[in-house]
Design brief:
single chain, 2-methylcitrate dehydratase PrpD, 60s Ribosomal Protein L30, Chain: A, about 50% helix, globular
């Protein structure tokens, strides 16, 4: 093995091992602070959802790690799964433009549970969070759209590696142990996107499972278990296994300019509780809402879309125009445009059984269709364009040139806090406990013991 050229995993692990906490730029720390605020609000907002209750019933082994929102502790693996699923459950969490991956829902549960299990402080938490987040984002750049096109969820695949390197850093693993952990995680990574067919809950589970893989793979490696060093670039590595082979991977994205170019700072926070690529179309609808006197007077709505989004957000069209489940509605642009025009918002309340049964919403969604725009910039840029044609022939058009909340139009800290508070109120958390949680997470990097979280009462 020593005669083989240094692998991509080893190069990244070497950087992680030698990274000093003081070398992390302030803008990266600030972005991750916002991701933490956002993610904790989402963790708690899902506390009463059936899919979270089912996981808690299934994963009951006691431990030292907090199930945020539940006044309950379980082992690190189970805490990672449940907390990660809660953050991503309503698809309202952060995302990375290009090949969309969700970072907070993987990294925060993985590093939080590991730090609690090992009684480590906020500085160790910060470094583990930083290096894992950076790896996930860089992996997303290697072969944009190729993993999705192969039928896998990028967060599920790339998240396992980010979680692994983050936990390895937190545990103090050696360079060899870190790269071996990445190799092990390659055999743990999984997550198909067949959930799109009927809006079932498996996508919700993907970040949590990836987070749990980090704990297991890092600990396996620390105990001497070996994984393939060439897990990324190898003949049977990740990109040859999980990605379309007609999109050539560029592995330099993983290792070039480490410590100089930080992709983590480009993470986007969502203003709406739905799929990333549907978001600009809601903005389009909101821009036109004031011009439409009565939605019943609309004849049809045509959206101009990128070809790469069709199989996830537009087909099968009948299902997208009348989603079977509230979760399926999150990946239906017809539904998202409809609630934008009718309700003027798209938060957690709009993706519920109540709204799904609203005949006005469904009748309008049935009028929404699409046309492929060959000049659409997807996946380099997420934009939206719609044309509303009224029954009297009048036409209204609007466009959204980028993802709101993304690098070109980021949400302010005030907007993120407002979203955090709204999501906690959705879960009926008392104002006094909201304030306690906010104080904890805004000081998390300075914390001496992350088990202070147990002092917050979520009942």
């Amino acid at each position: 093995m020593n005669n083989i050229e240094t692998s991509v995993a080893e190069k990244f692990s070497d950087w992680v091992h030698n990274l000093n906490i003081n070398d992390i730029p302030e803008e990266v720390v600030n972005k991750l602070q916002l991701i933490i605020i956002d993610s904790f609000g989402l963790m708690v907002s899902a506390k009463n959802e059936p899919y979270i209750k089912s996981l808690i019933n299934a994963l009951q082994e006691h431990g030292d790690c907090t199930l945020v929102g539940h006044n309950k502790k379980v082992n690190p693996f189970n805490a990672s799964i449940i907390n990660g699923t809660a953050i991503h459950g309503e698809d309202f969490d952060d995302t990375f433009e290009g090949t969309p991956v969700h970072v907070g829902s993987v990294m925060i549960p993985a590093i939080l549970s590991s730090a609690q299990a090992k009684n480590l402080d906020g500085q160790k938490f910060l470094k583990g969070l930083v290096v894992g987040s950076e790896l996930i984002c860089r992996l997303a750049l290697v072969a944009p759209t190729a993993v999705h096109r192969q039928g896998f969820h990028p967060t599920a695949i790339f998240g396992a590696f980010g979680s692994s390197i983050g936990v390895s850093s937190l545990l103090g693993n050696t360079i060899n142990e870190m790269s071996s952990g990445l190799g092990i995680a390659g055999s743990m990574a999984s997550g198909i996107i067949e959930y799109l067919a009927e809006g079932t809950s498996t996508k919700r589970l993907h970040p949590g499972w990836a987070a749990g893989c980090g704990w297991q793979s890092a600990n396996f490696a620390k105990s001497g278990f070996l994984g393939p060093r060439t897990v990324f670039e190898g003949q049977h590595g990740v990109f040859n296994s999980f990605a379309k082979n007609n999109i050539e991977p560029d592995f330099s994205h993983i290792t070039s300019d480490l410590g100089k170019r930080w992709e983590t700072k480009n993470l986007a926070l969502k203003p709406y509780a739905c799929g990333t690529m549907a978001q600009p179309f809601i903005d389009c609808a909101l821009k036109l809402k004031g011009k439409i006197g009565n939605v019943k007077d609309i004849d049809k709505i045509i959206a101009s879309v990128g070809e790469g989004t069709v199989h996830r957000l537009w087909e099968p069209l009948k299902e997208k125009q009348n989603p079977s489940t509230p979760y399926g509605a999150k990946f239906s642009v017809p539904y998202c445009i409809s609630i934008g025009l009718i309700n003027g918002s798209a938060g957690l309340n709009e993706f519920t059984e109540k709204y799904l049964k609203n005949l006005e919403v469904i009748k309008l969604a049935a009028k929404v269709n699409y046309e492929i725009n060959p000049k659409d910039e997807y996946p380099k840029n997420y934009s939206g364009k719609i044309k509303i044609i009224m029954k009297d022939g009048i036409t209204y058009s609007s466009s959204q040139e980028c993802l709101r909340g993304g690098r070109r139009d980021p949400l302010s800290r005030t907007e993120v806090i407002k979203k955090f508070e709204a999501n906690l109120k959705f879960a009926n958390v008392k104002s006094s406990e909201i304030e306690k949680l906010y104080n904890f997470i805004t000081n998390i990097f300075k914390s001496k013991n992350l088990n202070e979280l147990k002092e917050i009462n979520f009942n």
